[in-house]
Design a protein that fits this description.
The protein is mainly beta and about 500 residues long. The chain folds into three domains: about 20-180, Immunoglobulin-like (Sandwich), CATH 2.60.40; about 185-350, Immunoglobulin-like (Sandwich); about 370-505, Cupredoxins -  blue copper proteins (Immunoglobulin-like, Sandwich). It is built from six helices and 35 strands. Strands 11, 12, 13, 14, 16, 18, 19 and 21 form an eight-stranded mixed beta sheet that branches. The chain has a six-stranded mixed beta sheet with strand order 25-24-28-33-30-31. A five-stranded mixed beta sheet has the order 4-5-10-9-7. The protein is globular, with a radius of gyration of 22 Å. The structure holds copper (II) ion.
Amino acid sequence: MLNRREFLYLAGAGTAGLLAGQTGGLRPLAHAAADSDFQPDVELALKATVSESPILPGRPTVVWTYRGRLLKGEAWHLADSGRSYLGPTIRVRRGQKIRIHFYNELPEESIIHWHGLHVPAEMDGHPRDVIATGQKFVYEFEVRNRAGTYWYHPHPHARTGPQVYGGLAGLFIVTDDEEQSLTLPRDAFDLPLVIQDRTFDENNGLVYLTHPMERMTGFLGNRILVNGQPRYAQKVLSRPYRLRILNGSNSRIYNLAWADGRPLTVIGTDGGLLPSPIVRPNVLLGPAERVEIWADFSGMGKGDEATLVSRELDLGPLSGMTGPGGMRGPATGGRFLPNGAPFAVVRFEISHTEKSSSRLPQQLGEFPPDDMDSAANHSAPRQFHIAMNHMRGVINNRVFEMNRVADDEVVQLGTREVWEFINRGGMPALPHPMHVHGLQFRVLGRLGSLYDGYLDEGWKDTVLLMPGERVRLMMRFEDYDGLFLYHCHNLEHEDMGMMRNYYVRAT
Ligand SMILES: [Cu+2]
């Protein structure tokens, strides 16, 4: 039995306007009439559709993909992903106003979420805003984020996993004056790398979950794709590059490192550039997280190679519920690549030598102090227990409810709070990459870690939480009130209900 007093019904909390006409179809129609006062600097159309993509030799693979078209703005705002199933890369400048006409040509409901962007609640792609096949949703927002590597993907309730797996994802890159004033590699030397894992059947068709138990660990594909292609190789010059790496996988965790053992030079995370570069032997990248690497191939000769790998990560029994010849059907040849298994990610081949004057800046982004004392609740953080419970993902023992928030999920606009995510482990003990919509946070601390390679520096919107760990985050609820989500970005966990609303209340 739910305790009625424990739950705040939004309609009864003076937010009737917010709830009005929430059921499918009504709200999207309202959005279809764009705000006449909104003057976009950039306007584009994004269509989600069923298509084909050449991935493996032979037959093309049926995929779901975003197709983009620039309606207003300059050519650099929208870059086609070429032969890849990935959506076009959107590039904008901080402060620009953007209007995106989203058309759903999929055979089911969908909606786009702008992962990491600070946008109004009604532009965030909440699952209650899904639109049906053949319908349109118009997004309008000002880009307020600092320069960084953000991304977009679908967010329909219980269908995010299969839709992203089908191919629906793209990068949303923001630049700003601060970034432009730095001498960072640009254009052809600024390389986005989207890492995903997929499993194919003998006809090159995508295979998603083959057994319900696979949802517990999340989907794990047996082939690693980068930018939609297997065995990814990139020709480079002997000079520095900026690598923008997104873990676009449903549930796989990468333990990134250089094969030759030299350390990674990290310049950015989810929310853009760090204050200054940091050097790490390896970096753990959970689903939806981003890392930016300064990769310097200077001094290498023509024909030389450097390989970015994912090193072995001992996840023990967390590595997958299915083993070789286990629950995997004959369609995948029984091959299984457990979470934590080692493999090559990208091979860089030096095609030409070049002398470059490009030097790693020692000062990158400006950061305000992450002063915990400025949080209203610094002595008693708001706690969230994340667990898998009888095949249901729960946060503080609750599964996702589309239009509800609990009392302890209401925050005040204009305040700062410390949030604590707690993964007690349990049975089965699983990693949970936790994502909070609508803002960028700072990681204040992590307790109970058994692993190395966390990248908790800088601005973040997703934080990897291993079993037995707890993390403390500094949240700032600024500019926008309304209903936002927080959830596990293991997409199978999310689809199993490991997601909740939080509500930012205006005074
Ligand atoms: Cu999870």
